[in-house]
């Protein structure tokens, strides 16, 4: 009955959700498995596949784990999810325990809690003979090619071009000109800085047709964004032709402030991250775009690459540097390509490791 | 004598770790009788009261109300049985109004639909206030009331039981006069006399003359036992003293023979000292070995002066010199460093840190001397504490005992020890014997003489005029913030109380 | 008596001091209006009110706890859990429930349950309220995470969302609801035994106990009451943002405690009022709004916010009675 009311696309989302709920359940099983060693896996001589990350409380990481699970399921390998709870020591301890339990026959796709953790994790894995792919966080001077073959690769995302691309989508939705307001993340944090640079680049490229009326950090928080948007409506009123938010949570907060004034849909809003609420708002014509990091893909492809190296299918040491430290792709999702994006989801292909990458990671001062 | 007892305690026994606080105590309060209960601190009076109020439970024995055994597990059980207590440490909440205080925890009768009917509450409170002749608005917050008014509020609260329970009520007055001026004490006694028509009263006080004046019968407690019972008309103060301390009082109560002549070097010179409030243009000189008494009514400025000299309230004008060197008195730590020790009347809140041990309290003001390379030398601290415990005969199981568990008199001695250890040259005693019993008082008097023998100078704000006269070598009388008179008080040539009072008011 | 008149003077000053937060609020409004006249426009006042609705509901609970001399750090956890529960009970894309507005009382009761557990554990196991509520606040987020596995429930119930979006006399329903919460809290404070006992316990717990106040029961009740308010706050947050997820409460704790303290309620207990907290919310919300209106640079904003807190607390403190500050 609920399906009927929500329409076909919502139904598709429900299916996707069911899959994800399964992932959450699986994660729970993984935690249990950590307590009761699964001897069967170790004895069979198979490689165990594992994901390590901060938390299941946010959509990005939950989907990241689900992608990993999807790959593991596709090859029938045992799968574990380790949660650090934002605690580096716990993260390390869990990985050590899993290394010991699997006798080093482990492929790990890890989003380290903090950059320095990456070095310890890589060293531990090399000592145990396991294979590791890192995501997002690592020290700039830690490189996969210095730990051949165990440190398979590091994947990250470049906030500058993605923010620039989504800002351009926003300007397009505005008709190419007018004033915008922008919500940033906590300003000391790298993605927040990169996304601000991307926005500034996009504005500069309009040669003055788009003006930044005001920029406020809302700490990635939707409630803060809501309050700031309210004040902006008083200060700038109808001069606001578009709202740029450095993540989807803040975009939703701003959108709801607009909705309270009956302006949802009248003023385009963009976000970044590609969370479900944002995709739905795009579908409803209330948001002009977001960037999907595709954690489903990064979760699966990291394991797939590591697994291929472990099974000897790829001689990773022979691969060029742009295959060892590479950016994942942020996909700009707009009303125009939403349906296409959703279809991509259903057809995950873990065979093409580097096809989606825009290139090798650049280090900015 | 055949009237049934309204409240009876039979074979009451209560022990705490290491202490037998009540040892087979039996006593009876007859209807419409005022019973005095006296004893040294630690004699068991407070424990008995707490048992009657439901704060402690007896190990053995029972409490009977109108001949029937009752269980008092909670202060409200005590209310229900008609037992009301007026606490020594006042239990009036300054943040609540007079009416709210009177009916605190008994608001049920004023509920209408779950909400308190404030008009009825205030009216009922007004009726209770009339019983104690207190003319204050029941809606007023208690923060603005004087101490005596608050006490009346407490008594009104106790009396409110009168119309609210069946049977007799018993009101326990715990040291009700210790903080009152004479005029207020007289009013209190009038009210107690009035109350006899409505209630039985237990009157606890360390002022034996008051007890004999107000009570019909007196119980004396010592070491957790009732040691003496006597009708007031047959009792004498020396006899009661003897029963309380278990020995005869020193013939020379104030140790006048040991009074120093007060002709030592000038230690403290005060010139034109004016406080931010309370006192103006005060000048005097204090000599080594001298006890300088300051007499005055509440509001005369003597408390403010004492607090100023202790560095608690910096002065507005004037100069103070110690050993000829100027002191700013900007903070207590400066005063301490320059040799002024202050023993406040609010021992619990200002003189001691209740959670710390006896030894820790004693060394608090001179911790630097017990510290080496940033660490406290505990062994030396304990040694010093032990020697002072012995010297002042402080009753404590060990130096490590939390000071809060000691009796009032012994706490006072700990404060004294603290200043002696800190090496104070001038010690200010603000009501040093308030709320402590006669035996402990004598110890304090001995201590005062010990201090002056060693060349310390003492400023005394006495609890009674008699005490000020007895202990001091010289007396300043303050009135309306100024020094009204300065009287010499050599042994054998002491001024009379009347001389002082005439100058005080 | 001489001391009587002195006491009288101090009383008058104390009364004036109680109004200090109002003065701060008025001053803020005047300064902002001078720089940015739009501030006083009707539409901005409505925005201020709608932004204040949830904080108001939350501070009503927190004020009682703080008046009692305790602290409640579970705000964010309870708000998150209540918002998640609400979002799952109205028409949504995660469950097949469709309770509509009935979800609100369920969320309120759920909040009350956590509050009860807070109070029970604090009182019976004698764990400081600081630790107990911190723990159960985390537990609230944890349970919400476990239920949703990190995902966001999207609310599809238009009727429920009317709570935040619908208006009566041009003012959102959520504001009217918050107003009712304030009224209820005020009546509890002024006219019930619970309110009375909260002041007594906050002033002097031992003496209150000796006077016959059921201290333990009161404590548990107050934490439960606080939880009920947080539950309502969570339901309103769900209505305002149209969703429910485990991090919905983020940032609420700081706003709540700040508003209570800035309003003049002492963290030491016994002094203050729910009306003080209403003023406190006003100060916090007006400041947030006003700084954006005046175009104060983001970095400066945080400094101004911190400074405001110190100024407001400094004005509200009765320093003459304060010997020890900790």
Structure description:
- The complex is a heterotrimer of chains A (365), B (505) and C (326).
- Chain A is of the alpha/beta class and 365 residues long.
- Chain A is 49% helix and 16% strand.
- In chain A, the strands form 3 sheets. A 6-stranded parallel beta sheet of chain A has the order 2-1-3-4-5-11, with helices on both faces. In chain A, strands 7-6-8-9 form a 4-stranded parallel beta sheet, sandwiched between helices. A two-stranded antiparallel ribbon of chain A has the order 10-12.
- In chain A, strand 6, helix 7 and strand 7 (210-217) form a beta-alpha-beta unit.
- Chain A is elongated and about 65 Å long.
- By secondary structure, chain B is α/β, with parallel strands linked by helices.
- Chain B has 2 domains: 5-245, P-loop containing nucleotide triphosphate hydrolases (Rossmann fold); 256-504, 3-Layer(aba) Sandwich (Rossmann fold).
- Chain B is built from 17 helices and 24 strands.
- Chain B has a 6-stranded mixed beta sheet with strand order 6-9-10-3-11-12, sandwiched between helices. Chain B has a 6-stranded mixed beta sheet with strand order 18-21-22-15-23-24, sandwiched between helices.
- The model of chain B has no long low-confidence stretch (mean pLDDT 84).
- Chain C is built from 14 helices and 4 strands.
- Residues 1-13 and 320-326 of chain C have low confidence and may be disordered.
- Chains in contact: A-C, B-C.
- Chains A and C meet through helix 1, helix 3, strand 7, helix 8 and helix 9 of A and helix 3, helix 6, helix 11 and helix 13 of C.
* CATH fold-level label of chain C: ABC transporter involved in vitamin B12 uptake, BtuC
Q: Number of DSSP helices of chain B?
A: 17
**Uncertain regions spanning at least 5 consecutive residues of chain B:** none
The percent of residues in helical segments of chain B reads 25-40%
**Strand elements of chain C, count:** 4
What is the name of the CATH superfamily of the largest domain in chain B? P-loop containing nucleotide triphosphate hydrolases
Distance between the termini of chain C: 35 Å
Kindly report the oligomeric state of this protein. Answer: heterotrimer
How many beta strands in the DSSP annotation of chain B?
24
**In CATH, what is the class of the largest domain in chain B?**
Alpha Beta
Largest sheet of chain B: 6 strands, mixed
Share of residues in strands of chain C:
under 5%
Query: Topology as H/E string of chain C?
Result: HHHHHHEHEEHHHHEHHH
Using the CA coordinates, give the radius of gyration of chain B. 24 Å
How many separate structural domains of chain C? 1
CATH T-level fold name of the largest domain in chain B: Rossmann fold
Helix content estimate of chain C: over 70%
